[in-house]
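Schema walkthrough. Field components (list of strings):
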Amino acid sequence: MALDSKVPKGPIADKWTDYKNHINLVNPANKRNIDVIVVGTGLAGGSASATLAELGYNVKAFAYQDSPRRAHSIAAQGGINAAKNYQGDGDSTYRLFYDTVKGGDYRSRESNVYRLAEVSANIIDQCVAQGVPFARDYGGLLDNRSFGGVLVSRTFYAKGQTGQQLLLGAYSAMNRQIARGKIEMFNRHEMLDVVIVGGKARGIIARNLVTGEIERHSAHAVVIASGGYGNVYFLSTNAMGSNVTAGWKVHKKGAYFANPCYTQIHPTCIPRSGDYQSKLTLMSESLRNDGRIWVPKHMEDVLAIREGKKKPTELTEEQRDYYLERRYPAFGNLVPRDVASRAAKERSDAGYGVNATGEAVYLDFAASFERYGKEQAKIHNISNPSEAKIKELGQEIVKAKYGNLFQMYEKIVDENPYETPMMIYPAVHYTMGGVWVDYNLMTTIPGCYAIGEANFSDHGANRLGASALMQGLADGYFVLPYTIGDYLADDIRTGKISTETPEFDAAEKEVKERIAFLINNKGTHSVDYYHKKLGKIMWDKCGMSRNAEGLESAIEEISALRKDFWQNVNVPGTDTEYNEQLAKAGRVADFLELGELFAKDALVREESAGGHFREEHQTPEGEAKRIKDFQFVSAWEYKGEPKDAVLHKESLEYENIEVKERSYK
Amino acid sequence: MSGFFKSSIGRKVAMALSAFFLMFFLLQHLSINILSVLNPELFNEVSHFMGTNPLVQFVLQPILIFAVVFHFVMGFVLELRNRKANGVKYAKNNGAANSTWFSRNMIWSGLTILAFIGLHFVDFWFPEMNTKFIQGDWSGTMEGVEGFRYHEELVHKFANPVRVAAYTISFIFLGLHLAHGFTSAFQSMGGTAGRKKTLQTIGKAYSIIIPAGFIFIAIYHHFNH
Amino acid sequence: MDLTLKIWRQKDASSKGQMVDYKVTEISGSMSFLEMMDVLNEQLVNAGEEPVAFDHDCREGICGMCSMYINGEAHGPDRGVTTCQLHMRMFKDGDTITIEPFRAAAFPVIRDLVVNRSAFDRIQHAGGYISVNTSGNTQDANATLISKHAADTAMDAATCIGCGACVATCKNSSAMLFVGAKVSQYALLPQGQVEAADRVKNMVAQMDLEGFGNCTNTGACEVECPKGISLDNIARMNRELMKASI
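Field assembly_structure (string):
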């Protein structure tokens, strides 16, 4: 099947408006007869469920957590971008579009990104109307901060809990519709397959995670909003339950999976402390606004610090290497995430890592304490303030901005970041790849949509900070509710979809057999044993930098590990009770397939772009080197074994932006 | 409005309102009783006024009784409901880690106070009612006592050390009850953060002064006559 | 360090549960409490036993899923943290740790340490929202000025993660801190004013219906709340309900 991205014709600034003016609509009376399934209730799924229900569709929403409010969007800290230009610093829709395409290393679809930038301002209006308590300045206006990879302040925030507040906003909109009966909420349910009837997505098979019951749910369209697949690495900043299952199941039923190798490794996470570690904790990138990143310049200092003979605060300015400021004078500590992460890895690989594992760099706020302190002393008319006073005043400002992050750091690491620099290291955070979708956000299965992080769409090869929240809400509030109507307009006479059909029978049978197999296998290794092994292969060979040899062996190793899993996995308990191991086994089984496709995708992409860094393709200075021939989206078609997947290319044309070497120097 | 007092918060507010009335009563009761130490004659005058004034006797006294009964019954009902809301008990519960003993045990300090009120009624109120309503003697005098009888009766009661001890223990519980109850009543009525600090200070002072005052009076009369 | 764990085991909602003793060894102080539980579970799975079920997801203290009553306190002995952010350095070698589910009649046990907190969702359905449709035509976000103080106070209330520690801690199993926080967030913002009266009435009514107990202002919830939600929110809710009713 040839890929048709269905991008409307016309100038980029008018595409979305024109498109909306000409699509088919469903009249309100008919919407009542149409059901939509939404899998996942994070920012994308939550906002889509609420908006579709407001419009009049009957929505069935599914979450594996015990409440929609717990989806992992809640953990996003820093903020959400919007081209409001409230700060008057030259922001505009075009500039947000430009920054996003450039930040994504020219590997995203122009029309989608422009639409995203266009609706970004509406998101802020909508969220404020919902009662989201964004930070305000003393005049009562909304405050902004700046984020990596851009030159304007366009990020709106609610302390260090922006994702939480936006999700609670979407959740509140859902609550209103749940109360009206327009959303039927299925908490503690997991989608285990999509049901295709007559070539269209018409329902799902879900498992009730409390009782173990397998349920059939039908609908006129199915929306996948299940987030990203960072947990393929075992250790990531994702939630423990975050998984690829929903996306992978639709892939296996015909939806193409795009750019799986584009993974974002976030630069500011708390370093790993031991083998028992179950997850990594992110510290908002906004910290880079006020923190300076460095490692010691001299190896003897590194060793002295590791042995505890020296403290980082004892090093003079001359003995420190502010490597981001050195390498990228224009953007300094605010380079995009992929650049910052690789630079940290480069220093650590060179032996300059500052903790016992050798995988940590410093994030230092001392300069900010001083800068803010002096400013505050002026404001409060304190003449000749002492150094201690300046530090104290400065710390108050930093505390107001990032207090919760500093507190979190102290709880985890047991060091006071006000007194000693933080230690950070990159960790897997976000996956730009995902289910391929067209301009309508529809997958290659008619009637099956993918939104938010679950789709591949808007971030290209690297996502800029504070853009994930923007995309999730843009898809859910302002894009999908329009585009899905165009498809559902043909379904007004279809009537209720029956679940008593051979297609549902077959899908349910398949799901049940798989569960029965896992439960009855009674092998020798726990699910986590396999997950950890997979994670290690992924991190070592498909991590921050990759090469052909490593990727080839990764494909073989993952394939062998998967075989081992299906022979020797041990899932305790039964399938008719609350059984977390069983749920996890199903998710890891899917990761074991995805991981292989991931490696294959990375192997085929013979270039470096954004989060995908191939050692064979770098500039003499060690920067990522894009190759024009790879200016396309890799969309993979499932053919049984992941390594047999067939590649379809969607070529990317840039008509409104000049493709340049990405430079942050 | 009627729905309001059926809600959990409405009941809380009702508890607080009755508490306010009772706290005001305690204050005036102590103010009068302290006169028995400072100025027995004035104490007699005021006691006679309170004991014979129709407004006090037929309006305020029934309100007081209603407030006491209401506060007790509502407190008991809420306690039962709250216990029901608990479900299975914890095997290990470290309440001291997050709250004071007296805030968690209002029901026990309350029951102690209730028992005390029983004793107090037997001591003073029943005889008083007997004299006034059954014997019809509203004179405020008694044989062998010059002037009004109230001071003499008071002094007489506190001659018994057991009674003094019982009163003292009861007042300590009253203090504990007030130590939480005072600020709690304001919180229930929606007292805000700005006033909190001052309120807490006043609350502390109140919950010490009131019981300490009563204890002082009992002990004073026990040892001085 | 080596530890003895006393853990509540209960097969399902209708079964009777009991405390069961386990031993774990070589626990590092840098482990989170849940990582310690992972060690136990891996041990149980490898021994062919059923692992201890517990709720957890983000493991960074924000989703509100984790919910353990540890040594008699919701989320354990540390302050300002959820169970997932509680670290083992709070304990000593040889300690016995008692681990129970969050208890309340309104939070029935699903299995072991997993409880059903859907009562919280239903309270939110009753009014935890501002009725605004997604139109793209709402007024500009800066059209209504909101004082920094009001925005910050609303934010402080809105940081509630809905974990239920307040209910678990409360000797009365009262949910007023949770409900008060939501009522406060909207009561403090101009957007929330239009529906304020109905909101507080409906949410309180639903709270009562769910069988939560009554607040007696012990303040335990505020101390144990991992997000430091203030008791002032309960006072504000009381005021809002009085205002709405009178």
